[in-house]
Amino acid sequence: MDYANREIEYSSLRDYLLNGATPIWIYTYHASGITSFVKKRIYAFCTSLFGENMFYIDASIGKSLSELLLTCLIQSEHLEELQKFADRKWGEHSDSLLSAALECVPYIGPALGRLAERRAAVPIYTGVYPSAMDELLIQFFGKGEHRFLIVIDTVESLEESSFELLAKLLKTRSVYCILIRTEETPQYDKLENYLFEEGIDFSAHIDFDRPQVKLIKELGALYDIMLSTDEASAIISKTQQNIHAIIKEIRNMKNHSPSLTMTPWEKAIVLILQIWGGPIDEDTLYQIIAMSEVFSENESETFQSTISMLQEKELIEGGPREWLLKGRHNPLLQNIFSQISDQLFYKNIVYEFLSRRNSGQSHAELRYRLSRELNCTTPDDAKTYLHQAIICGKEVPQELMDNAHLEKGRRSDCLLAGIKFCRERRFEEAFAWIDSVSDDEITADIEAFRATLLNRVRRSEEAETALLRAIQNSKDPGQQNLLSSFLISTYIHMERLADAQAVYEERKDLFPDSPMHGYLVRNSTSAYREYREDLYTQALNDFLADHDDFGYYTTLSNQGNALCKTKDYRRALTVLEKARDGLEMFPRSNLHIVYNNLGICYFLLGKYQTAYQYLLLAQRFGRNSMPRIFSTINLACVEAVMGNTDCAIQRLNDIEQEVEFHKLDRVRQKFYVNYLLVESLHGNKTLEGHLAKASAYPDRYFPEHTTHAVLCYQEFMNSGKKLIQHDWRDLYSPCGLAYWYMDPLKLLSKSIV
Questions:
Q1: For tag attachment on the chain, is the N or C end more exposed, with fewer CB atoms within 10 Å?
Q2: How far is residue 632 from each of residues 317, 360, 580, 643, 675, measured CA to CA in Å?
Q3: Cα-flanking dihedrals φ and ψ of residue 26, to 5°?
Q4: How many domains does the chain have?
C-alpha cells in the first residue's frame, strides 16, 4: 500500500539526514503510524545514503540494545565482516566472544551455527559493564568503514543498562540514529537526563502528531473511498486516532465486512510470538503449539494456513522459516495481549517447552524470566541463566544469585560466583568463593586465579608465595607473562621496587613474542624511579602486535603520568589526550585513571577549571578506594590553589580516617604532604601533627621531595607570613594513577569457564 500525507514530517526528516544531523528525535504517540512512516517513506529515501546499512529496532520487546543490534548485524551482510573484525582485533582463540554473545540471542537461526563453528575472539578486557557484546559493537561501529542508520522505536523502553552503549553509539561518526519516543515516561526522563549529561544533541527533532482529518481522507482515497470531513471526524472519534483502528475502519467501509476476528490457532501463534520476544523458527513454533489445547494430530496444514493468514493480515513478518510479530500496537493484538488468562496459559506452555527441551544456554534468559513471572523458579532455572550471563559479561543482579542457591565449597558454584565478582571488581567476595574450593578440586588454572586474587585483595605476602608457585607450575608462556605482571605489581605495593625490577629483568626475554608480554613490560615501568622511554616503547609495540587496544591506551596513560613527573607537561598532555580518546571506547569504569592524570596535567599547566572538571569525573567513576582517594586529594589541591580552601579542607577531612586505615602506605605518602599544602594555603600554622606524619611516610620514588616540602612548611610555621612564598608546584605532590589492571579471568581455560 502507498503512504499518505506526512509531507511536512518527511521534508524535515529528509533535510536533517542530508545535513548530517544525528540523533534525530521524533516525538509521537502509540499507533500514530510512525513505524510505517519510517519503513515506507524514510527507508526508501535513505537507501541512497546508507545502502542496506539500515537497522530498525523495536526497544519494546525487552531485549538489551546490544542484543538487538547484534541481531541486526548478524542477519545482515556484515556477519562475516563482524567475525573477521573480531579475529583481527583480538586474535583467534578457542574461547569465542561471538559464539558466547550469540547464546544471548538464540533466535538468530542458522547464523549461530555458522559462527560457532569458527574460532573467534575473547574480550581483551573484562570489566564492569552490562554486556561483553558492548565492547565488540562500539569498536565495530567505531572503525568507520561504513555508514549506518539505526532507528530505535519506543526508545523510552530501553533498559538503563543500555544507556551507556547508546550514548557511545551516538558519538560515533559513522552511526546516524533516529530515536522515536512514543510516550513520555519516567524511564524516558531518566534516559534524556543521562544523554544530556553525556553531551548528546537534542536540537534535531520532529513532532509527529496523531492522525488528523486530512490524513484520514487520504487514507480513504487509497482504498477508493472518498470521505467527507464529517465522516473523517467520525472515524477519529470512533478510533481515538489509533492508526491501526483507522485503517481497519476504512477497510470495513470498503468491504462491508464485520470486524476482523482471530481463530484459536491465530491467537496461539500471536501469543507465543509475543512471549518469545523475537523471531522464532517454524519448527520451534510448531512444537510449542503442539503442546497447547488447539492442537490435534496432523495439523501441519492448519498451521501453515494460519501463518499465511496472519501474514496477509500484516500481523506477522519474516519467513520463510522464521517469524516475528508486526505492528504490536494493532488493536487486534492489543486485545489479545490484554487477556491475562491466555497470557498465563501460553507462558506456562513456553516455560514447560524450554524446561523439557533442556534448552541450555540458548534460551536461558527467557526460561528464567518466565519462571519469575509464573512464580515457579527453580535453582536450575536460575543457575542456567546465571551461567549464560556470566559467560557473556551481562550484569548479574543479586536476585539471580539468590535464586541460584550457590554453595561455597562446590567447585562449579564457586567458579560462577568467583568469575561474577571478579568481573565486577569485587575481589574480596571473589576470593572468598574461590578460596572455599577444596584442595583436591583445585586445578592449576584455579590456583593461578586464586594467586592473582590475593594480589587484588592486598594480601601481598600470601600473593607473593602463591604467584611464585603458580609461575613455576605454569606451562603456558602467556600465562607466565601475566602471572609475572601480577608479581611485579605485588612487589610495588610492598614498596619492594628492587624486587619488582629483578622480576622484570629475569623474565623480560623468556617469552617476548608470547601473549601478555605487554603487561609484563607495562607494569614494570612503575618499578623504576626514573622515566624509562624504552619500556613504554616496548610495551606499546607489544600491544600493537597483540591487537590489544586496552593495553595500548592504558600504557599511554601511564606514560603521560610519568612525563608529568619529568615536567614535560606539553608532551604529557598530548599523550594523555590520545589515551583518553582510545579508552573512551571502553566502559566508563575504565576512565577514572586517565581522567585523574589529565586533571593533574591541566593543573600543572595552570588550567585550573579544566583540571577541576576532569578530577570530578575521575572521582565520580572511580570505584575502588585508592583511585577515589587520590582524585579527592588532587581536587582539594586544585580548590585550594583556586582560593576555595574551606571546601578543600573539608574534602580532606572527610577521607582522613579512610586514609589512616588504608592497606597501602602509598596513600598516606600522598595524603599528608598534600594536606600540608592545603592547610598552608588556608593560612593555618598549626601543622605539627601532619608534619610528623608526612615525615614518617616519604614518597617511595622521590623521598627528597617530601623532605623538601616538610622543611618549607616548617619555615612557613615559624614565619609571620600569611601565605607560602614558594611556588605551589614545588610543594604539590601529584597523586598520579597507573593502569596496573590485568584480567585475572584470562588465566582460566574455556573448559573451566
A1: N
A2: 55, 47, 20, 16, 11
A3: -120, 120
A4: 3
User: Is there a contact between 548 and 521 (Cβ–Cβ < 8 Å)?
Assistant: no
Same domain, 171 and 194: yes
Tell me if 70 sits within 8 A of 168, measured CB to CB: no
How far is residue 522's CA from residue 558's CA, in Å, rounded to a whole number?
Answer: 8
Answer for the pair 161, 136: CB distance below 8 angstroms, yes or no: no
User: In this predicted structure, what is the pLDDT of residue 254?
Assistant: 60
d(CA 315, CA 327): 6
Is 474 inside a domain boundary?
no
Residues 172 and 239 in one domain: no
Domain-embedded: residue 543: no
> Would you state the pLDDT for residue 81?
78
| Torsion angles phi and psi, residue 148, rounded to 5 | -120, 145
Q: Are residues 47 and 140 in the same domain?
A: yes
**Bridge pairing between strands 316-318 and 322-325:** antiparallel
Gap between the terminal Cα atoms of the chain = 52
697 sits in which H/E element: none
The CATH number given to whatever domain includes residue 145 is: 3.40.50.300
pLDDT at position 100 is 47
Same domain, 332 and 197: no
Distance CA 313, CA 260 (A): 9
Given a contact cutoff of 8 angstroms between Cβ atoms, the answer to whether 95 and 122 are in contact is: yes
Which residues of the chain fall below pLDDT 50? Answer: 1-2, 92-97, 99-130, 256-259
Cis-peptide into 23, omega within 30 deg: yes
Domain edge (last residue) among 207, 223, 245: 207
| Same domain flag for 71 and 201 | yes
- Please report, for the domain that includes residue 283, its CATH number: 1.10.10
Measure Cα distances from 486 to 441, 465, 467, 471, 491 in Å. 24, 12, 8, 10, 9
Instruction: Give the residue from 447, 453, 588, 457 showing the smallest Cα distance to 127.
Output: 588
User: 227 is in which domain, residue-wise?
Assistant: 213-255
